[in-house]
């Protein structure tokens, strides 16, 4: 596939031409798939930029054309790329990173794919704004109002949330540093992603001021523990600032009770962040979105399309309920980029809200996938992955040699121990725990050596190593799951 890219300040035209004949349709090389993106002119026509707004509909649109006589097979070849059937989607996803990377390569000009100003990347700026608004609508913020950015990953999105929380309550830290603030404390679950602690270290709070909250047997924060720890911190004279609730924890796939946590945050006037890096995708599913009930009460949300939704790395959004706070927190107004006297509406120069300068175009592949699959396509993807996890759970729950870490998956995370025959009759003891701790790493090593499959494992709290199976690829089938279970039994039977 040869990709030609034409950019101007007003128009992005990407032409995808097959250079070699399609194996089954020799004339397919004459076909091309064209993507037209036209930004709506957001300013009065007298000082219009771009100077001659194209007369197209003010939204971004696809078009597909072909020049061959063999219409059907050829059109289906390229439309395959954007269909949601398993094969086509897989091919499409495989192609996409190449596709977007190719855009930058063929342009031979990295600057064009940076997005700090509207004049440099109008199409991508608008794609980003449009998509973030749609995501905020799905969170439930009225009319999708608010703010946001795509960032280099969930860890960085979480860091943004801590930065803006601090700016909200102690804006003087931006200029005077941490000495202008009292001792500030962050709260997050003992099951939460380590990026909250890392943000605490990187931003000068110190990891001692990141307090871990106790969880129930399913890995969900216990709200009473949060309130007790807030009171304890206040009694010591420190200032509670920020609470992170996880929607889909990394290991258990647990969803913290957002509504109850939000009640406590409102009572003590704390910033509520929801880390939906892993579980945010469930907002696309009418069947599963209730697991994030209360997310609309959050001040900020991390949502990684590059996890559960299958968008190629990297694609993570930080979404913020209050408009303008990202700019207030981060903007430095560099005079050589963000001139206030440009001839267009400079609120479209979104780059200064980021902690980076140039940014990679993460939005393009996500926007393209959303256009191709639709919200319903993402919903089917999510529902299928969760169904497969339930299938795995049902298959191994009560099966000889398997023991579940918790009852019933909340997300696609299914956590379990494989107990080899040699350990099955043994009563619980330190010796058995030590032996069981070594089982998952050994089976995984054998899987890798035989090149059959791979599945993650880890200890958690006082629990010895257990397997954690997650499904985020909707092309997985029940027979893949059957194979995984058989493979674990085959490799583990003599341990
Ligand atoms: C709950 C949660 N938050 C944040 C992250 C970090 O995301 P990223 O790898 O995109 O930085 C992860 C990664 O596994 C995660 O599971």
Automatic annotation (TrEMBL):
One family from Pfam that matches here is Pyridoxal_deC
- Keyword Lyase on this protein? yes
List the molecular function annotations (GO) for this entry: glutamate decarboxylase activity; pyridoxal phosphate binding
Q: Which residues carry this modification: N6-(pyridoxal phosphate)lysine?
A: 307
Q: Which GO terms describe its biological process?
A: gamma-aminobutyric acid biosynthetic process
InterPro entries named among the record's database cross-references: PyrdxlP-dep_de-COase, PyrdxlP-dep_Trfase, PyrdxlP-dep_Trfase_major, Pyridoxal-P_BS
Taken from the UniProt entry, a GO cellular component term is: cytoplasm
- What cofactor requirement does the entry state? pyridoxal 5'-phosphate
The alphabetical list of record keywords is: Decarboxylase, Lyase, Pyridoxal phosphate
What the entry lists under Gene3D superfamilies is as follows: 3.90.1150.170, Type I PLP-dependent aspartate aminotransferase-like (Major domain)
Q: How does it assemble?
A: Homodimer.
Report the sequence similarity comment from the record.
Belongs to the group II decarboxylase family.
Q: What is this protein called?
A: Glutamate decarboxylase 1b
